[in-house]
Structures are given as C-alpha cells and as structure tokens.
Amino acid sequence: xxxxxxxxxxxxxxxxxxSMDTSLEKSEIVNLPHTWYSNxxxxxxxxxYSKKLLINDNWKNVFIDVEAADQHAYVYVxxxxxxxxxxxxxxxxxxxxxEIYKGKKELEVSIYVTNALDETISxxxxxxxxxxxxxxxxxxxxxxxxxxxxxxxxxxxxxxxRTSLNEDYGLVDIExxxxxxxxxxxETIIKAADGTIIYSYVCEIREHIQAQIxxxxxxxxxxxxxxxxxxxxxxxADELVDEKITKTGFRCVxxxxxxxxxxxxxxxxINGVSKHQDVGEKYSAVVNDDILNDFxxxxxxxxxxxxxxxxxxxxxxxxxxDKKGYLIWAEIPMLKMTQNEELLDNAREQLKELILQxxxxxxxxxxxxxxxxxxxxxxxxxxxxxxKSKELVKSLDSQxxxxxxxxxxxxxxSKLNETxxxxxxxxxxxxxxxxxxxxxxxxxxxxxxxPNLAIGMSEYGVDCNIGLHSxxxxxxxxxxxxxxxxxxxxxxxxxxxxxxxGSYVWNMFDFSSAIRQEGGLDKVxxxxxxxxxxxxxxxxxxxxxAKWSKEKFVHIxxxxxxxxxxxxxxxxxxxxxxxxxxxxxxxxxxEASNNGNATIIFENIRLESQVNDITVISGDCSDSASxxxxxxxxxxxxxxxxxxxxxxxxxxxxxxxxxxxGFYSIKDTVNDLIENKDTYEILKKxxxxxxxxxxxxxxxxxxxxxxxxxxxxxxxxxxxNLFNSELxxxxxxY
Length: 734
Hints:
Blueprint lengths: L1 E4 L4 E6 L12 E3 L15 E9 L6 E6 L5 E6 L2 E7 L5 E5 L1 H4 L4 E9 L23 E6 L4 E2 L9 E8 L2 E8 L1 E2 L5 E7 L5 E8 L3 E7 L13 E9 L2 E10 L4 E4 L3 E4 L2 E2 L2 E6 L12 H14 L3 E4 L6 H10 L2 E5 L9 H18 L5 E8 L8 H17 L4 E7 L15 E4 L11 H12 L5 E5 L20 H16 L6 E4 L5 E8 L2 E5 L13 H10 L5 E3 L6 E2 L3 E8 L3 E6 L2 E7 L5 E8 L4 E8 L2 E9 L40 H6 L1 H10 L1 H9 L9 H8 L6 H8 L7
Parallel strand pairs: 23-24, 23-30, 24-25, 25-26, 26-27, 27-28, 28-29, 34-40
Antiparallel strand pairs: 1-10, 2-3, 2-4, 4-9, 5-8, 5-10, 6-7, 6-9, 11-14, 12-13, 13-17, 15-16, 15-18, 18-19, 20-21, 21-22, 31-32, 33-35, 35-38, 36-37, 36-39, 39-40
C-alpha cells in the first residue's frame, strides 16, 4: 500500500449544513493540519474542506486516510457519500469505489466536519476545547494490485500485532485483515533491535499468525525501551504486493492494592505528568516537531509516565513513548455518561478504535474507560455500562489493565470504583476545597475503606499565572509561588503512601479551555508546569525535575518576582544537589543544605542596593537572578478582583463560604448530600420541592454545589442560615 500526503491546498469554508452547503463566510485556502478555532471565535458548527484528487491510471484500489477529524465527519467524493465517522480523535479510512474514478482524471474530495455538540458523541462536556477541523492531516492510500491488507478495519493497517509472555517465550499474535485471491501467500519476519532476523515464516492466507520468541529482551520502560520489528508481507503470484512494518515489544504489567505497579515483576512508582494535545496558538493543529518538543520537556523533568488526556492522541505520540520508554495511560473521552444508547455505543466504538489502532505499543500499560463521569451522578446504569466496556477491553486485549479516573465527589464505597483493575482519583485539596495537608488523611481513609482497591492520584494541581507573585502565597492568588508551594507540599505526602501506584501532575502544559477565564488567563487552564507556548518553565517544573531527574542543577525560584518591597527576602532554590552557596552582588553570602524535599532556602537575605544580583552555586551547577528594591508595592503582581485565601470555583462546581471544617454545608455537592441519610432528611425537611426536582431529572448535574442550586431556584421562606447550621451538625463521611 502506497501513501501520498494530501494536506496542501484545501478550500475551506464554514457552512450552514451539507444539504444547503451555504457558506457562512468567504472561503480560504488552507493546509492541513488545520483547525478553525481561535480564541476570538469559538465556532461550534459545520465546515467544508474540498480538494481535487488527480487519478493515476495504474491505481486499482484507492483509499482516503483521515488521521482525525474533530468531531463528526462526512467524506464525499464527486458528491457521493463514502463514509461517516463519529469521534474526534481516532483515524478512519474509506475506499473510493472504482465506478466513481474509472475513466476520470480527477475527483472532487469534500470532507464536512462539525464540532457542534451532539448528544450521541463523546465528549459531551470537558474542561478543554473541542477545536474542530482536520487537525492531523489526510492521506491518499493506493495500490496497483487486487490483493492488499485492508486499511479500513477500524482505522488500522489491516495488521494488528499483540504480544504476551509465557514462561521463557514471547508470544506474538498477528491478526490479519486482507483482501486476497486464491494462492496468495503471507510472509512474517521478526527482527531484533539490531536488525537480526529471529523469526521467519511463509504460509497461506489466514486470519492469525502466531510466533514464539525464546527468551525475548523485555521492553523495560526508561531502563531499556527495547523494540522488535514485525514485518508482514503479502505475495500474489510470487510478487510482493503489500507490506506492513510494526514496532512492538514484550513486557508484563501487574498491580497490587498495597504495593502498587509492577513492570516485568519489578516495582515501579508512577512519577507521571498528564498532557493534552494542543500547543499554544496552534491549538490542536500540531505537527510532529511539536510533539517531539513536548517529549524533550518531559524528558528533562524526569517523569516515567504520561497520562494522554482525555482522548486518543496521534500515532506518532505513542511511537515516541515506545522509543523513549514512557508508560502510557491511554483513554477515551467519556466525561459525561447518559442513558443515551447511541452515546454509549459511540464510546465503545471509540474504545475499540483506540485499542485496535494502538495495541502494538508496549508503552501503553492501561486503557482508560472514563474520566469524572461521577460529576453529574452516581447511578447503577453507569456501573453496568462500564463493566461492558471493561469486558470489551479484555476481549480485545487481555494483557493490559483497565483504568478510570473518578472525581473527588465519588465516595469510596461507590461501585464506580469496582469497574476497573485500577482507579485514579482527581483530587484538588488546597485549590477547589480543603487544605493541601488534607491529602494525607483522605488517602489513608480511602485505603482503609477499600484495601483491595489499587488507587493512585490521576490528577492534582493548581492554576498559575506566571505574571502573578506573592511573598505570602495563598490559594486563589494564582501566583507562581503558590503553585510551587502546593506541589512541594502535596507530592511529599504522596511519597509517604506506599499503597499508591503513583500520581500524575495535572498538567504538564497549560492548555486551551474555551470555557475558562480566571486568574488573569483567558481561555486557558493554567495548571501546567510549562506555559501553553512551551516557552516558559514555571518554578514547579523544577521541583519535579529535582525529584525525578538525575541531571544535577540548581534553580532559583521567583525570578519573575523582580520588584521587592521588603528589606529582606528568602531565596528558595529547587535542586537535587545536597548543598549550595548563595552569592549576593558577587560576594559569597551563605551556604545552606537541601531539606530532603528538593529544596534549599536561604533565609533573610538583605537587599543592599536598588538592583541585587543573586547567584547560587553547587559544584558545577549555578543559576542567577536579579531583584530590584522598590519603595512601593508593584500591584501588577496580584489580581485586585480575586479573593485570595478562598477556594477557587471549579469549572463545573460553584462555591461559597458557609463552611465548618469536617462537616457538611450547603456548599457541598448535591450528590454528597443526597447520599448521606442524615443530610438527605435535612434536605427533605427544608427544600422538598427542590429535592423532588433533582431526583426526577436524570440529567441533573449532581456535582453542583447545593448552594448554587438554591440560588437559582430561589425558594421562598427558606432560612438559609438555619438550614446550613443543620447541615453543619453532620460530620462528613468519605
């Protein structure tokens, strides 16, 4: 099968619909990858891409290869609908029938794409942008023969490679989907990483080929990301007519509720980061160089795992992970589950595409089947459907774990915790609720309540605007200092919990979220350790680099906090060195030691002049910064409108201040208050009509704070303070 790039020179325009095909604006010529999203125009509707395809007389079978279309696509050739695809993140192909192109020199290819909200396509909600567009590119596949590997089977190449281990053998199962004639033959060759042929076999056409490799070298994460090459060839009348080359590896992954994750029978703690696919103002229309740059930054920080959130990423991304030895959490965009059967079927279709297109990648250790669906409710139909998804995964891939990420509001006892092999929790103490230190008690209670559950932290973090700073960092000040303080406080807690399989920082990079405007950031989730344009590494980046990387370095924090009012300041340094020396204006000032948490603090450094040059040295490592002594506070470092010190409003939760620590209040979620029998009775007493409305509406967002619901419903004669004080008497249960 031959491949031609078909990315340049598309005519693009936004349209009302396919039937009317009325342009909403003037068309333009664009190259792929392309998204129509901009921060100034979050268009959620339909667009049309059109391009001429020149036909070669020798082509016998021609296919259109769409690497991804966000989110619902229709492919037409000469006004004939060839295929429809629902889902914005997986590849799909379609064949152009011979009767369409026979005798023609060119064809009109039109791809309609819409990112309008569709209740039958996941995701329905999410704290990220649904960009729209042909944002990964399009190719033309063709062959001059009648026999070929079928590229239309769930977007695969027609060759699906699975590996497993059995005692001293590596087992390779090659699932084949072919279009062939009688007497066609298959040849399979497996090569070691050095190119040595270790297996060769020729046979008649069949659906499976199985091979045994004695004493295989294991793909062992960053220690040794060893890859084998599987070459599958198709011969017709002794002529080679098609060939597929697949990189793969052998490894085993297991998980234990008390001791965490094991790779090849060796314990490995997940030191992970999460990432979305968009980059700066390119948004989702990234190229391979952007992906390589992301990996270089993750390499630098020293992580060993990546959660590729919250959908299927490009095939190149998984290939990079294979080569670099990262363990990958791969998932589908199931972020809100309803009882719409079409939606549930679509989620499983996306799951099947994710697995079949990527099963050969040894870096993928788990398949994620949902993220935060408990945001809206915790209902029996959800467990039943998730079990179906787990069974689907196991039927396609028995070698990997099934995972899910639950929201903090999901109770320990919830059956949502019983549908997968492992579970992650997205918890934001010290930002959306509670205090940073609450993680310790919370996690211990979780493990005590569910000792047979393999748990870890799938999300944690705080937003940071690199232009904001504080000598007294607090929640909701969005300062670089609070983000750094949060991570060095929270991650230290995680390290003390041996039962955790590990954790994923949310997020490695700031990312686009068209629904957000907070902390001085517009349409950006600022929880990244690196800015969305990848130009600036925030201080918290260097904390994790000091914890995870072997590269020796020192990093002075708060460099962007230049103008200082105080006479004396503390200089915080993130480092993996044992000691360091601080120089002030070229003069050696003080030596200090690492506190054991990747941090050195030089206390009470007196600013002696208007401009104070600071250098920190440890062996061959050094870093420098300058601080300016000013007479008045630089107010540009803080947001006047923000109420620093109070919890941040979540993108789906509302918040207020009628709280009593450790007890319920109207700021708790509807879900929590309904589930507790004591608070449920209080709701029946004070707001019976609202309670009935909630219970009778299956789409009601149970993740909303009750106060938000009350504010909207405006019940008459409700004594809100008395109501809240009754809730304040009931102790919170997890």
